[in-house]
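Following up on my earlier thread - several people asked me to post the actual chain instead of describing it. Fair enough. Here it is, all 155 residues.
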Amino acid sequence: TKLRRKTTKINEDLRHLTYLLRATRQQTRKIFYAQAIKHGLTESWCLVLGVLHRNESSSLGDLAKEIHVGNSTTSGIVDRMVAAGLVTKTRPENNQRQLVIALTEKGKEKYEVVERDYWKVLAPLTDFPTEKTTQIISNLEELETKLEEISNNGK
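Reply from S.P.:
Thanks for posting it. Predicted structure:
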């Protein structure tokens, strides 16, 4: 029937969309990871450095949310980064239970080099017309919001 064909077409389009999202993420991660490795960093470390570069410092919990992993995973990542001299961990005097993570100068420098190299590799993407890029961003933000709603309702 007509409704069944329409439903099938929607399902095919959604399947193709989710495939393209995964494929795009996989390709950008591959490029990003290649830049990270060149500078002796892991992908997770680069994500942490990026968050801290944008925010100056962060609590462990907020950092975990930003990089989309659990607190215990983030704690392990941070401990290894402290040992490598990329970040510091401090406890504010007014709240000894809180842990504040911040970049060291070495961490800042490493992040800026990886970021520069990453965007240099992605420079051909500037060939996309601005209007097209703006529309893609808008559509993806709308999709992400909808998926978050679905995810939260499913809990």
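DSSP finds six helices and three strands in the chain. That should answer part of your original question.
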